């Protein structure tokens, strides 16, 4: 995937297509009926679905937080809970990113 995206002539149309698809997903989910699921009623299947939605962020044009919010809203959560879960799911990713950058820093300057 990275080799394909390194070619600048292909990169812009892929970003445009993924952005349109992301917007369409958000539009569809926004019109779905909500069941007002709260933080206490999240199930393991909901967590797995949100994680898989976040995995779509490897494609350019998809937002990790946005996909997590879209999936959790589609699974019946209200928008406030969706936003909270999306931000909480970003904490492990940020910690891993910091650790990897620190290791890179140590290897480069040692």
Which features characterize this protein?
flat
Summarize the structure.
With 110 residues, this protein is mainly alpha-helical.
Low-confidence stretches: none
- Estimated helix fraction: over 70%
**How many helical elements?**
5
Oligomer: single chain
| Strand-residue proportion | under 5%
- Gyration radius, in Å: 17 Å
Protein described:
- This protein has 110 residues and is an all-alpha fold.
- It is built from 5 helices and no strands.
- It has helices spanning 2-6, 8-30, 44-55, 64-74, 79-108.
- The radius of gyration is 17 Å and the shape is flat.
- The mean pLDDT is 82.
Topology:
Blueprint: H1 2-6, H2 8-30, H3 44-55, H4 64-74, H5 79-108
């Amino acid at each position: 995937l990275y080799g394909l995206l390194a070619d600048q002539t292909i990169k812009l149309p892929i970003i445009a297509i993924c952005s349109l698809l992301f917007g369409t997903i958000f539009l569809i989910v926004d019109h779905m009926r909500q069941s007002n699921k709260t933080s206490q009623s999240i199930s393991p299947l909901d967590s797995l679905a949100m994680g898989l939605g976040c995995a779509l962020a490897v494609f350019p044009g998809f937002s990790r937080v946005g996909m997590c919010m879209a999936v959790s809203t589609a699974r019946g959560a209200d928008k406030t809970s969706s936003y909270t879960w999306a931000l909480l799911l970003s904490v492990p990713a940020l910690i891993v990113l910091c650790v990897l950058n620190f290791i890179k820093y140590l290897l480069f300057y040692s």
